[in-house]
Design brief:
The chain is α/β, with parallel strands linked by helices. The chain contains nine helices and 19 strands. The strands form five sheets. The protein has a six-stranded mixed sheet, sandwiched between helices. Helix 5 runs antiparallel to helix 6. About 25% of the residues are buried.
C-alpha cells in the first residue's frame, strides 16, 4: 500500500516539476527578451511535450516474449535466448531498457551477450534481441519475468513494468563416455577390471518382467503378454550378478562438480553396458533410487544429478554407517568421493569384509597428485584390502584401466 502511494506521489511531483520548468523557461523569455531566450523556451517545449505524452503512455500495450531453443542441456553448453517486444501503436520511444530476470547462478555465468540490453525503438512496432550464456551451470534454472523500462531524454518520467514469461531449462551434468568393466578379484595378481560382457543365462527363465528398451525380441513371453495386455519379457538367471549400487558423497568440496560429473558418467556407462544400477545421495535429504536398468532409469538418475547440491552436513562415513541398503548381499557398491579419510577407509574395509565388493573412486583435479597424508591413507587402504581408484578430471577413461587401480 505504501509503495503505491509513493509511486503516485512521485508521478504528481514530477508533473509539478515539469510545469515549474516550463514556467521558469517562459518567465525567463518574457523578462529577458531577445532571440536567445525565446529560442531556448521554444526548444524546451518539444521535450516538455514529449514528457507529458510519455506520462500518458501505457506499457500494457507491449507484448514481451522469450524463446528458448530447447529445455534440456548438458553442463558447459551454450544457451541462446531470443527476446521479442511487440506493440500495437507507433508512439515514438526514446529508449527501451529490456532485462531478463535470471536466477543467481545464471546471472553470474559467463555471458557473451548480456541479458540486459538498451534498445532504441523509435516508432518500430517490433523489436528483438538475443543474448548468449556461454557455459551453462548444472541445475534446474527457472525464468520468471522480463523487465521493461522506458523514459524521456530529460530523465523526468520513467516507466517500468515486469512481464511474466515463465520458462525452465534442465542442465544435466557433463559426462564422459566410459567403457564399464566389472571389477574382479584375481588371486595373487591384485584387482583388475573384467572385460566380460554382462550376460544372462538364457537357458533358464526364472520369471517375467515389463519390457525394457534393449531387450531382445526372442526374450518376449507372448503368453504372459497376451494375458496382461502389455509386452512382458522373460527374466533370466544371471551367470554372475553385475548389479551395482552407486553412493555419491554430497559433502561440500571444491571438487563437488567433478564428483557429480563422474557419477553421471559412471551410472551411464553401467546402464549402457546392460547392467542395472541404483543411486544413493544424502544432501538436504536422503534420496535413493532402487536398482533398475533401461533408459527410464538413466533419465531419472540424470534428472536427480542435475538438481543435486553438495549440502550434506555429515561426513561420508557417517552416512554409510546409518545406511540400511548395505544389508543386501548380491550387489557391488561403488563409492564416489573427493575426500579420503581414515574413518572412511575403516568403514569401507568393514563393509568390504562383509560384502566382498566395494570400490571407492577418489576424484582429483587434473594432474593433481595425492598429498602426503593421502599417500599414507592409500597405503593403509591397500593393507586393509580396500580398492581405491584415483580418477582425475578430464581423464575419466582411466577409471576402469588396470593402471588406475591403487
Amino acid at each position: 500500500m505504501k509503495s503505491k502511494i509513493w509511486i503516485a506521489f512521485k508521478k504528481v511531483w514530477k508533473m509539478i516539476l515539469l510545469l515549474v520548468l516550463i514556467l521558469i523557461a517562459f518567465a525567463y523569455a518574457m523578462f529577458q527578451g531577445g532571440f536567445v531566450s525565446w529560442f531556448l523556451f521554444y526548444s524546451f517545449l518539444p521535450f516538455a511535450g514529449y514528457c507529458l505524452a510519455l506520462s500518458l503512455y501505457s506499457l500494457n500495450e507491449l507484448e514481451v516474449t522469450r524463446v528458448l531453443p530447447k529445455t534440456d542441456y548438458n553442463a558447459g553448453e551454450a544457451l541462446k535466448v531470443m527476446v521479442t517486444v511487440k506493440r500495437t501503436n507507433s508512439f515514438p520511444l526514446f529508449y527501451l531498457l529490456l532485462e531478463d530476470q535470471l536466477d543467481d547462478r545464471l546471472k553470474f555465468a559467463q555471458q557473451r551477450k548480456k541479458a540486459k540490453a538498451l534498445l532504441l525503438p523509435g516508432r518500430k512496432k517490433e523489436l528483438a534481441y538475443e543474448y548468449i550464456i556461454d557455459e551453462l551451470p548444472r541445475g534446474e534454472h527457472l525464468f520468471s519475468s522480463l523487465k521493461v523500462k522506458v523514459g524521456d531524454p530529460l530523465g523526468l518520467f520513467e516507466k517500468e513494468k515486469s512481464f511474466e514469461a515463465l520458462g525452465k531449462v534442465i542442465v544435466y551434468p557433463a559426462y564422459t563416455e566410459l567403457v564399464y568393466r566389472p571389477f574382479e578379484n584375481q588371486f595373487e595378481q591384485g584387482l583388475t577390471a573384467s572385460r566380460e560382457r554382462v550376460q544372462r543365462d538364457t537357458s533358464m527363465a526364472i520369471g517375467v518382467r515389463d519390457y525394457q528398451p534393449g531387450d531382445r525380441f526372442s526374450w518376449i513371453n507372448w503368453k504372459a503378454s497376451a494375458k496382461r495386455n502389455e509386452i512382458m519379457t522373460k527374466e533370466f538367471e544371471q551367470r554372475q550378478s553385475h548389479d551395482v549400487f552407486v553412493v555419491m558423497d554430497c559433502v561440500p568440496d571444491p571438487h563437488s562438480e567433478a564428483v557429480v560429473s563422474f557419477t553421471a558418467s559412471l551410472v551411464r556407462a553401467i546402464l549402457k553396458k546392460g547392467a542395472q544400477t541404483g543411486l544413493l545421495t544424502f544432501s538436504n535429504e536422503r534420496t535413493a533410487f532402487p536398482i533398475s536398468g533401461g533408459e527410464q532409469q538413466l533419465r531419472q538418475l540424470f534428472y536427480h544429478l542435475a538438481k543435486i547440491e553438495a549440502k550434506c552436513g555429515r561426513p561420508f562415513e557417517k552416512v554409510l554407517e546409518t545406511e540400511g541398503l548395505f544389508i543386501q548381499q548380491t550387489i557391488s557398491f561403488m563409492l564416489v568421493t573427493a575426500q579420503l579419510t581414515k574413518p572412511l577407509i575403516e568403514k569401507a574395509s568393514f563393509l568390504g569384509q562383509k560384502k566382498g565388493s566395494i570400490t571407492l573412486f577418489l576424484i582429483k583435479s587434473h594432474q593433481e597428485a595425492p598429498s602426503a597424508d593421502e599417500h599414507s591413507l592409500l597405503a593403509i587402504a591397500a593393507a586393509r584390502g580396500v580398492r581405491i581408484v584415483m580418477v582425475h578430471e578430464g581423464d575419466y577413461h582411466a577409471a576402469f584401466s588396470e593402471v588406475s587401480l591403487r
